[in-house]
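[Discussion] Sanity-checking designs against the backbone

I'm trying to build intuition for which residues belong where. Below is a C-alpha cell string of 303 positions. I'd appreciate it if someone posts a full sequence so I can compare it with mine line by line.
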C-alpha cells in the first residue's frame, strides 16, 4: 500500500501519554520497511513521537494483511528451527525463563500470553512447560501458528475469560495507536504476581540523531505508529499504575563495530582511533558501554 491509499483519523493536538501539547516534528522518508509521507508529532514532556494524524484502523488492518500469506507446514517448521538457533530475542527470553518461574511463586503450570505473537515462535518454545496463548492481528500469522496446534486469536477480546502469569510484547507497543489505553486493558489480564515483559526500540540509544529524527533506523512508518524514549515508557507505567524496571545487560549494549562504522560514514579520524583501541585493548570495550547504548531495551512491568 502507498500512503495515498490510507484513511486517517482526526489529527490530535494533545499527547497520548500526558495530554501535553504536541509539536510538529518530521515527515517519514522512503526506506527499509518505511513509507514516505507520514507526519510525526513530538511531545517534549514525554520525549515521545507519534504519527499524527494516525491511520484508520481498517487501513492498518489492510496494510498488515496485504502481502502476508499462510506458509506451508514444512516452511513454518524451518522458520521455527532458524529462530531457535539464531534469534537474539529468543535466546534472551530463554535465559529469562528461570527468572519468570522463580519470581512467580506457584506450583501450578504458568499461563502465558504472547501479544503480537506472529506465527507463534515464542509459544512454540514454551508450549511443553506453560499453558500458552497468542494474539496477532495478522490472519496469515494466526493460520501459520494454528497449523502446528498453537492457540492464537486475532483479538484479545476472544480471551476475555483468561488471566495470565507472564505476558510478553516483543516489538509490539510501538505498533499500537493508543499505548496508555492498551496497558490499562492488558493490566486487567495479568494475575496479581504476574509479569509483563516488553522489548522495544527507544530513542535513547547511540544511533538516534535528534537533529535528524527521520533518519533513525526504527522509524518504520506506518508500522511504528509511536516512537518511545525511556521517559515515555516510565510515564505510561506510572499512569497505568504499574511498577517499571528497565533491564540492561551485555546484550543491550551496542557493539564497538557499529560505532566505528557510523563514524566511518562521516570520514572522521575517530573511527580509526576507536578501531585500534578496541583491537589492542580489549578491556577498553567497557568504555563504549558507558557512552554508547543500544537502541533497544527490555522492560519489566508488575502490578
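Best answer:
Here's mine. Compare freely.
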Amino acid at each position: 500500500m502507498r500512503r495515498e491509499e490510507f484513511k486517517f483519523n482526526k489529527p490530535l493536538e494533545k499527547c497520548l501519554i500526558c495530554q501535553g501539547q504536541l509539536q510538529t516534528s518530521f515527515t517519514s522518508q522512503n526506506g527499509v520497511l518505511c513509507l514516505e509521507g507520514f507526519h510525526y508529532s513530538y511531545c517534549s514532556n514525554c520525549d515521545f513521537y507519534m504519527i499524527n494524524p494516525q491511520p484508520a484502523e481498517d487501513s492498518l488492518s489492510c496494510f498488515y494483511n496485504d502481502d502476508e500469506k499462510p506458509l506451508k507446514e514444512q516452511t513454518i517448521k524451518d522458520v521455527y528451527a532458524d529462530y531457535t538457533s539464531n534469534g537474539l530475542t529468543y535466546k534472551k527470553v530463554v535465559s529469562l525463563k528461570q527468572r519468570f518461574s522463580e519470581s512467580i511463586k506457584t506450583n501450578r503450570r504458568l499461563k502465558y500470553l504472547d501479544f503480537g505473537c506472529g506465527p507463534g515462535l515464542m509459544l512454540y518454545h514454551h508450549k511443553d512447560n506453560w499453558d500458552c496463548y497468542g494474539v496477532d492481528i495478522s490472519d496469515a500469522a494466526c493460520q501459520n501458528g494454528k497449523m502446528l496446534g498453537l492457540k492464537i486469536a486475532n483479538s484479545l477480546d476472544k480471551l476475555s475469560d483468561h488471566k495470565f502469569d507472564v505476558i510478553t510484547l516483543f516489538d509490539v507497543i510501538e505498533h499500537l495507536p493508543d499505548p496508555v489505553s492498551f496497558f490499562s486493558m492488558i493490566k486487567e489480564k495479568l494475575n496479581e504476581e504476574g509479569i509483563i515483559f516488553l522489548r522495544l526500540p527507544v530513542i535513547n540509544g547511540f544511533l538516534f540523531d535528534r537533529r535528524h529524527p527521520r533518519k533513525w533506523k526504527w522509524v518504520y512508518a506506518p508500522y511504528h505508529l509511536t516512537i518511545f524514549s525511556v521517559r515515555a515508557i516510565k510515564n505510561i507505567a506510572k499512569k497505568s499504575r504499574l511498577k517499571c524496571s528497565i533491564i540492561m545487560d551485555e546484550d543491550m549494549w551496542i557493539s564497538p563495530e557499529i560505532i566505528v562504522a557510523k563514524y566511518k560514514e562521516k570520514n572522521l579520524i575517530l573511527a580509526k582511533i576507536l578501531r585500534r583501541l578496541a583491537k589492542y585493548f580489549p578491556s577498553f570495550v567497557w568504555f563504549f558501554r558507558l557512552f554508547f547504548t543500544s537502541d533497544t531495551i527490555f522492560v519489566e512491568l508488575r502490578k
